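Long-time lurker, first post. I've been practising inverse folding by hand and with some scripts of my own, and I keep getting stuck on stretches where the C-alpha cells seem ambiguous. Below is the full C-alpha cell string for one chain I'm working on. Before anyone asks, I'm not after the true native sequence, just a reasonable design that respects the backbone. If someone could post their per-position residues I'd love to compare against what I wrote down in my notebook.
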C-alpha cells in the first residue's frame, strides 16, 4: 500500500520537474523569437513613422510601457 503512495508521489514530482523544464525551454525560445522592446527598437519604430525622436520622448515611452506592465 505504501509503495503505491510512494510511486504516486515520485511520479508527481517527476511530472512537475519535467513540466518546469519544458516550460522553461518554451519561454526561452519564445523570448529569442520575440524579444522585449528596447530603446533602440523604439527609436527605429518612431523613425519609421516619420517622427524624429528625442531621448526625452523615448524615455517617456519606455517608462509608460514599464508602468503598463
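-- Answer (accepted) --
I ran through it position by position. Result:
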Amino acid at each position: 500500500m505504501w509503495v503505491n503512495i510512494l510511486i504516486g508521489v515520485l511520479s508527481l514530482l517527476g511530472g512537475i520537474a519535467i513540466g518546469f523544464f519544458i516550460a522553461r525551454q518554451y519561454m526561452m525560445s519564445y523570448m529569442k523569437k520575440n524579444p522585449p522592446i528596447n530603446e533602440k527598437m523604439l527609436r527605429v519604430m518612431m523613425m519609421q513613422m516619420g517622427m524624429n525622436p528625442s531621448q526625452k520622448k523615448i524615455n517617456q515611452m519606455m517608462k509608460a510601457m514599464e508602468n503598463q506592465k
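A couple of notes from the structure itself: The helical segments are 2-33, 39-48, 55-68. Residues 57 and 63 are 10 Å apart (CA to CA). Happy to go over any region you disagree with.
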